[in-house]
Write a structure and sequence with these properties.
Layout (H helix, E strand, L loop, with lengths): L1 H15 L1 H20 L1 E2 L9 E2 L4 H14 L6 H18 L7 H14 L2 H21 L8 H81 L4 H26 L21 H10 L4 E6 L7 H21 L6 E8 L2 E8 L7 H5 L3 H11 L3 E6 L5 E8 L12
Parallel strand pairs: 3-4
Antiparallel strand pairs: 1-2, 4-5, 5-7, 6-7
Protein name: histidine kinase
Catalytic activity: ATP + protein L-histidine = ADP + protein N-phospho-L-histidine
EC number: 2.7.13.3
Length: about 400
Amino acid sequence: MNGVSTLERTKCRLRAHPMALDAALATGVLVTMMAGSFVDPHGGHGASWGARTPSVLSLTLMVLGAAALVFRRRAPLPVLAATGALSVVELVASDPRAPVVMSAVVALYTVASATDRPTTWRVGLLTMTVLTACAMLAGTLPWYAQENLGIFAWTGMAAAAGDAVRSRRAFVHAIRERAERAERTREEEARRRVAEERLRIARDLHDVVAHHIALVNVQAGVAAHVMDKRPDQAKEALAHVREASRSALNELRATVGLLRQSGDPEAPTEPAPGLARLDELADTFRNAGLPVEVARADQGTTLPAAVDLAAYRVIQEALTNVQKHAGPGAKAEVSVVRVGPNVEVTVLDNGPGQGDGPQEGGGHGLLGMRERVGALGGTCSAGPRYGGGFRVHAILPVKTRTPALGDPA
């Protein structure tokens, strides 16, 4: 692990100082060219190799070619043109030859690794053709000499190696970009789910607060009306106010508790309300003075938690609207019926004031009901009844295709 970390640190330092890395590379190329310039592959006595002394021109061309490589990252094409020109001069004017063409090979590799494939093909073929042709046509060696064919091979390998490095670098970059894009997508999906969950909790808060505040408002009005003449009835109404406010606080605590962090103390364990508490819900409205009849024909169907909560909230919101808008003397009927793969919830009232009340008030209760039911794949309709009153009708699937976020597993 220490070796790997040291290697990574070294790579990071080299990437941070590219000019120093190119200077080191240029020095290495210069040393290699100098060493090669003192070797004569055709000389010697009884041996295939001998020694020779390079000319001043060759030494100068080698130094200039190596110096040009220091700027190969900043200007790859000009550096290739400069090193190629130096190599042509060396091939034509110098005898014996020195390996100045090595600097052009490195420059061609840089061009191939830094540009696109069409540019590599054009520049590579041009460099190979010019340098090989100059080597074959100039000098005392025959055109088929090993040194001439070596120039062709080395320039071709430099272009191919540079193109391979560029392709691999592009492939790795594409993989890294795809991984980063996937990570961003996951984060966006997580944020979207969090926003949906917050919206769901906000709807629950709206339902809880609207329901209980409506009951408190009605009972407080009754208490104020009969306080002087019938104190016993006023006391009973205030008791209902106290009970409704306590229920509101308990449900608010349970709902807001869903927003707690995992490490927060006293996280709520109370399940969300459902149709099992329908009679209790109806009793709160009866105590507030609204007659409510409940009829159930769902045959003991066990509903998913999200569907059960949605059905309960639809009934709660509908009865709250009846309490607020239907007027005195109104009564409500609630029915829960299992019809095939669905559960149908209907809330009817006969109040003359209910028909336009919710729309004129501009409330979001009906909209919240439709969104809640629609999120589960159901439908919800609400509107005036023929002959007076109002009707809320919701169709909820018994089995949801995808569980809602936040439902218990």
